[in-house]
Write a structure and sequence with these properties.
- The chain is of the alpha+beta class.
- About 20% of the residues lie in helices and about 30% in strands.
- Strand 32 and strand 33 form a beta hairpin.
- Helix 6 runs parallel beside helix 7 and helix 9 packs parallel to helix 10.
- It binds alpha-D-galactopyranose.
- The site of alpha-D-galactopyranose has 11 residues, from loops.
- Alpha-D-galactopyranose (GLA) binds next to loops.
């Protein structure tokens, strides 16, 4: 049983033996929150978990003179503003020219086997009904004639609950929605560290932490994309929670546009989390009989530290978010020509790169920006999706043929949502660009196409579908290189402009939906100037994302470590690039570049014709190493071991679900002279009683996890003959294999 209902006490208990989530209908008909955390034994009545102590201070507003009942202090499930709860609400709706104090009271509930999908929106899904159960609570506002549905899904074998809300206008007048959060959660105290992923272009998703304090702390985006700057992910961890132990709640918003995730700590030190579409500028007109659906919030609870939380997200996304087709499919090792040629290429150059790459064992050739229109730099041609015959006089078909004769697959870069002012498309349809009639701000010399208009989405669908068919594409890199300014559609009525951002992203999702349905074998890699839209909304369509334009191995330690808090490593596009690195001018060893990139979907972003013979040999080995282990990287459990945000060393590992093998990555940024520090590395996730072979030695699992794996001897100034590692930017990857038939007595 995953959902218990007690109609007498009007209580609901979602539990799966790992987590419990409990709420009730309070005496004023609103929903009250009782508990969220580790699984509790079910009982008929949980009402004693309700906070009842109402401070007698004059500032407290009580209900029907009951001093033990005040919305100002009670934990609530989906609060509104205006009837004595002064904290930030989850919902704000109203009818024009009428009093605007929503009052939603409990009406009914439904339990559904499985999990319904959310119309037009990406969301986690199930394959079999038994994998999840959904509780839908219906609340009604009798004055507004509006129905509010709160959806809670609990997954069978995961510490995961997903939530969303939808609203239906049953009245005869237009309803205006100004706020409809995916979830709101009242926690009993504020003793948490607010942990999130922040940054900017080329240093995305760095881990940031701060103690919760009285007041509002928030992360958000108003850029029309989830953004490089704040990922729609938030964790609330206890102060002593580490990578391996302690309590943490993780929240991820399945959406790729404007969002807010905030925690309000009130005057009694309780904490309210709200997560949803950013209410700033948002105003949705809901006509009679229409429904508006909020995107979904994924909530994870772990009492096994950050790794427990991250693994729950990873397992969920691998099994219930990425397209089904790609769950077990191996992704090709690719070469992307961007850093090799930028815009300067022709057919011969590309074929030579592909040929040289295929000899190394690379499986997919990706032609990046610059193949269409007259695009010799970033000032023109976005929107003109036909091949540039100056660069490729024989067309894409000839190039594809040559690539496939090399035994490689072929992929192309698109930036479907964009339009250059210098393009035929713009000259023909200047009103297709987002912006007011008088104002357009350029970003990377380009404007954004108005994807809130279905005819524009249709146009792009036709163009892309035609090219996919004609060139038999295997892969598309879908880029989005600027954020949205002057968020105005020339087609929407003035009073509908508050709908623009949401309609825009629905247009993007619609295009993805149509293309992925029609071409399920085409692998999509999402990208937004690198990691500017690395979110679960995109992952629903594109199982991998270009993690960052920053390909420097040392920068990638932080970026990939932070990204792994919520997203599976196999979703992170990670490539070996040339040195000095194009983003940092840093020179790192080829081995370290690969050792970092292995923990992702692996590829190369360099000119293979410029490699020395030794480098080519090394790369061949890297490629066969990755081919051997990519199944483990795709399906294994990922453990963060040493954080690049607190140490000069970084370490992580992937352990197979049956604990029979593992891959460990260890990286030391700067060499330490004459140092003994970190000669061993404590591992995680292995079977204590199993014997494992690693680096020429045999250890038991408990030894590897308690005493640690002995690292190769480091150069200390005098031991040059025995030292096995040294210098800045050093790294090692260890493959660990269990020896099934070895018993304790044998050692
Ligand atoms: C973005 C991407 C890069 C590359 C360029 C091409 O910056 O993140 O990988 O595709 O666009 O213009």
């Amino acid at each position: 049983m995953m959902i218990h209902t007690n109609l007498k006490n009007k209580q609901f208990h979602l539990t799966n033996g790992q987590v419990s989530y409990i709420f009730n209908v309070m005496k004023n008909g609103h929903l009250g929150h009782l508990y969220y955390g580790n699984a509790l034994r079910h009982r008929n009545d949980f009402s004693h978990l309700q906070t009842v102590d109402v401070p007698t201070a004059a500032s407290c507003h009580v209900y029907e003179d009951d001093p033990a009942f005040s919305l100002e202090t009670l934990r609530q499930e989906y609060p509104a503003y205006g009837n004595s709860d002064f904290r930030e609400p989850a919902i704000h709706v109203g009818i024009e020219n009428a009093p605007n104090v929503p009052n939603f009271t409990y009406d009914s509930y439904k339990i559904l086997k499985g999990k319904p999908s959310l119309k037009g929106l990406p969301s986690t899904y199930i394959n079999e009904a038994y994998e999840a159960s959904t509780l839908q609570i219906i609340l009604k506002d009798e004055f507004l004639h509006v129905e509010l549905a709160l959806n809670y899904t609990i997954f069978q074998d995961k510490p995961v609950i997903t939530r969303s809300a939808s609203i239906k206008n049953n009245g005869t007048e237009k309803l205006i929605i100004e706020r409809l959060m995916g979830a709101s959660l009242d926690l009993p105290d504020k003793d948490f560290i607010f942990t999130h992923l922040a940054g900017t272009w080329s240093r995305e998703r760095h881990v940031k932490e701060r103690k919760l304090e009285m007041g509002i702390q928030a992360i958000s985006s108003l850029r029309g994309a989830s953004s490089h700057h704040h990922n729609p992910f938030l964790a609330l961890k206890r102060p002593f929670t580490t990578e391996h132990t302690g309590e943490v709640y993780g929240f991820n918003f399945v959406y790729s546009s404007n969002f807010i995730m905030q925690v309000e700590v009130d005057h009694y030190d309780t904490a309210r989390l709200t997560a949803g579409i950013h209410p700033f500028g948002f105003k949705w007109n809901l006509k009679p009989h229409e429904v508006f659906q909020s995107p979904e919030v994924v909530m994870v609870y772990s009492d096994q530290g950050l790794n427990g939380m991250s693994q729950a997200f990873h397992n969920l996304y691998r099994e219930h978010l990425i397209p089904n087709h790609w769950r077990k499919e191996e992704r090709p090792i690719l070469i992307n020509n961007w850093e090799a040629t930028y815009f300067d290429f022709n057919e011969e150059k590309l074929v030579n790169i592909a040929k040289s790459a295929s000899e190394l064992g690379i499986e997919l050739f990706v032609l990046d920006d610059g193949w269409f229109g007259k695009r010799n730099d970033d000032t023109s041609s976005l929107g003109d999706w036909h091949v540039d015959l100056n660069k490729l006089p024989n067309g894409l078909e000839s190039l594809t043929k040559e690539i496939s004769e090399l035994g490689m697959k072929f992929g192309l870069w698109f930036e479907p949502e964009m339009i250059s002012p210098n393009s035929d498309l713009y000259r023909e349809h200047p009103d297709w660009a987002v912006g007011t009639p008088h104002q357009h701000t350029l970003g990377r010399n380009q404007l954004v196409l108005d994807f809130s208009r279905p005819e524009i989405v249709d146009y792009l669908y036709e163009k892309m579908a035609e090219i996919i068919k004609r060139t038999n594409l295997s892969y598309i890199k879908w880029d989005m290189n600027r954020n949205i300014t002057e968020a105005f559609s020339q087609k929407l009525a003035l009073n509908q402009q508050g709908e623009f951002f949401h309609r825009y992203i629905l247009g993007v999702y619609n295009l993805y939906e149509r293309l992925t349905n029609e071409f399920p074998n085409v692998l999509f890699e999402s990208c937004a100037g690198g990691g500017g839209r690395f979110d679960p909304g995109m992952m629903y369509y594109a199982p991998q994302a270009w993690t960052s334009d920053d390909t420097d191995a040392i920068e990638r330690l932080k970026i990939q470590y932070g990204t792994s808090f919520a997203y599976p490593v196999y979703s992170m596009g990670s490539h070996v690039s040339a040195v000095p690195n194009h983003q940092t001018l840093r020179t790192t060893p080829l081995s370290t570049r690969a050792n970092t990139a292995y923990f992702g979907t692996f590829g190369y972003e360099l000119d293979p014709l410029k490699l020395s013979e030794d480098e080519r040999l090394e790369i061949k080995e890297q490629i066969s190493f990755y081919k051997k282990h990519r199944g483990l990287i795709r399906d294994g459990l990922f453990y963060q071991l040493l954080s690049p945000f607190s140490e000069n060393e970084t370490a992580w590992m992937v352990v197979s679900q049956d604990q029979s093998e593992a891959l460990v990555g260890y990286y030391k940024v700067l060499a330490t002279p004459n140092s003994l520090k970190q000669q061993t590395l404590q591992l995680s996730g292995l079977n204590e009683a199993k014997a494992y072979q690693v680096a020429g030695r045999i250890y038991y699992g408990d030894e590897l996890m308690q005493a640690g794996l002995q690292l190769p001897t480091e150069f200390n100034g005098v031991n040059s003959s025995s030292a096995k590692r040294g210098g800045d930017f050093q790294s090692n990857v260890f493959y660990i294999k269990s020896i099934e038939d070895l018993h304790f007595n044998d050692l």
